[in-house]
Amino acid sequence: MGDRFGQIHVIGAGLAGLAAAAALAASGRRVVLYESSDHAGGRCRSYVDAELGLRIDNGNHLLLSGNRSALAYLRLTDALDTFEPPGEAAFPFVDLQSGERWSLRPNRGALPWWVLARGRRVPGSRALDYLAALRLRESRPEATVAGRLDTASVLYRRLWQPVAVAALNTAAEDGSALLFWRVLEETLGNGAAACRPLLPRRGLSESLVDPALAMLRGRGAGIRFGARLRAISVADGRVSRLDFDDTPVDIAADDRVVLAVPPAVAARLLPELVVPDDHAPIVNAHYRAEAPAGAPPFIGVVGGAAEWVFRKREVLSVTVSAADALVDRPAEELAQILWRDVVKALGLPSQPALPPWRIVKERRATFRATPEQLKKRPATVTRWNNLLLAGDYVDTGLPATIEGAIRSGLAAAEAVAHLSRALTESDNKRAG
User: Fold this and answer.
1) With 50 as the cut, is the pLDDT of residue 1 above it?
2) Exposure pattern of 123-155 as b/e (b: 16+ CB <10 Å)?
3) Is the distance from CB of 389 to CB of 380 less than 8 angstroms?
4) Strand 7-11 relative to strand 30-35: parallel, antiparallel, unpaired?
5) Taking the mean position of all CA atoms in its chain, how far away is CA 28?
6) CA atoms 250, 253, 255, 259: torsion sign
């Protein structure tokens, strides 16, 4: 390699850690990946649910063709063919209160002429209404989504609010206007080319986790499951040792560490580190049921308890973000409430009996994307000269999404490479 770097120790095998490890291994680095649990993927994985007797995803995540970091990761891990060919850039919605159905359909190219076509935009909205989104771009750091948009408008209720909640996992009244703008800028702002859904052929693990692990093993990377990091020792401005439950690992002078653990864990290991500390819940419901013929792969729900319904193999799944109002309710009650919305959203005949179900509550799913919490997001590069951070809470300019997590991991890998180049140039100058 022509540089002075030794092993790269990546702590945490969620998507951020996997992305960092894959990028580093692809560049020829010697990588060791550590994970405290017995599986990789973090909050983005698949597993066999005993209650349903099926393999399900622990949550519902929607990737789009404009998610450039996720696509780079899929190419890196040779996983693009585990996704269905990108479909049409269309986002179906249903308003459970009025019964109206529509599909938001951006056009090719960045110039949004689609807002001029009544059949492509939200019913009841006017073309000029969409210009209000530009107010988000000019927001001050403390501005919220609801504070910058007309909350009484049809467009807010039927588009901006549900999309903001899904993207930020934060109520629109509290969510950062600037962060929401960045999401819109990378998706709707780039037209249909950036808005084509990418749906796994089988599940999240088969597309986002297993190919990465196979790639790492093929590159000779070490992978240690059940490796819980208890403490990090620092000396002279650098990490000097990693203390795992079973054994300590000394960090050589030319080693580097990528810490890709949840923010609360990072703060416990490094008390001087400031991280977001307010988290929002997500509730998912999974039903062993078949969708009717012609049902879309996903549909946005307005005016109900459910927010998004996904059609998967043998399973209908519901996601509710920023689910503070639901997370403490009994699972049996949630299963009934959300199933009623599924029946209406998909137009199922009459009121079919409640099928086998599973409710999954993530009480601390992601940090709450408020202006106050954004101030606490740390940078990739830390005060310790051999330690980089990765994770959806790191300041990527994006919310805590799959795209944000992967981008943080790729940024950490690039930071390692940058440090390598800088030190090599410094050595060459001294040698010259």
Assistant:
1) no
2) eebeeebbeebeebeebeeebbbbbbbeeebeb
3) yes
4) parallel
5) 27
6) positive
- Sign of the CA dihedral 146, 277, 400, 185? positive
pLDDT digits (tens, 9 = 90+) for 372-396: 999 999 999 999 999 999 999 999 9
Q: Which amino acid is at 41?
A: G
Q: How far apart are CA 175 and CA 143, in angstroms?
A: 8
Cβ 109 vs Cβ 191: under 8 Å: yes
- Give the closest residue to 365 by CA, choosing from 330, 398, 400, 395: 400
Q: Classify 391 in phi/psi space as left (phi over 0), alpha (psi -120 to 50) or beta.
A: left
List the domain boundaries for the chain: 7-46+203-277+371-431, 91-194, 279-367
Residue 285: which of 269, 264, 307 has the closest Cα?
A: 307
Q: Which residue(s) pair with 243 in the sheet?
A: 231, 248
The SS3 assignment for 325 reads: coil
- Give the whole-angstrom CA distance, residue 430 versus residue 432: 5
Q: Judge whether 261 and 242 are in contact, CB under 8 Å.
A: no
**Residues in CB range of 246: below 8 A, 6 or more apart:** 227
> In angstroms, rounded to a whole number, what is the distance separating the alpha carbons of residues 349 and 280?
35
pLDDT at 2 over 50: no
Smallest CA-to-CA distance from 62 within 298, 254, 396, 237 is with 298
CATH number of 279-367: 3.90.660.20
Write out the DSSP string of 355-424. Answer: PSEEEEEEEEEEE---HHHHTTPPPSB-SSTTEEE-STTS-SSS-SSHHHHHHHHHHHHHHHHHHHHHHH
Alpha-carbon distance of 27 to 33, in angstroms, equals 15
pTM: 0.95
Cβ–Cβ under 8 Å, residues 49 and 197: no
| pLDDT of 424 above 70 | no
Return the axis-axis angle of helices 68-76 and 210-218, rounded to nearest 10°.
Answer: 50
Quickly tell me which residue has 């997590």 as its tokens: 405
Cα–Cα dist 245/260, whole Å = 18
CA pair distance 312, 345, nearest whole angstrom: 15
Fold classification of 7-46+203-277+371-431 is FAD/NAD(P)-binding domain (3.50.50)
CA separation for the pair 395, 199 (Å, rounded): 27
Six-digit token string for 278: 């307010």
Helix, strand, or coil (residue 253):
coil
Q: What are phi and psi of 274, to 5 degrees?
A: -95, 125
Contact indicator for 82, 55 with CB cutoff of 8 Å:
no
Does an H or E element contain 105, and which? none
